[in-house]
Model the fold of this input.
Amino acid sequence: QVQLVESGGGLVQAGGSLRLSCVIAGRTLSSVGTGWFRQAPGVEREFVEAISRSGYNTYYTDSVKGRFTISRDNAKNTVYLQMNSLKPEDTAVYYCAADLGIYYTGSNYYRDAATYDYWGQGTQVTVSS
Done:
């Protein structure tokens, strides 16, 4: 059984920063690809960033380019999402997800929510203007 627990969300002013953490239990990070998604009220869940199983490749959506960075610490089995220059439109519940697949990779693969096998419970990020 794989479990993901996110933390680090909160209320921040526009222009501020937050770092989200996702601790993964039941699998080592080197055996899973990991993604961050977000969902605002009344909006479909949206891909934010992902890191491949190898850890060598990262993918992001254009709206967070230059502001958000995904990284991971294999020793802590934790994936991070560093969010800088936050904007009110970044307000959403942020979810961490893990992909156990071994055959596919690439941008289109990791951007698809259907790729992921396990999801965390989400952490709220609210950016005030």
Q: What stands out?
A: The two ends are 40 Å apart (CA to CA). The longest strand covers residues 18-25. The first helix runs from residue 107 to 111.
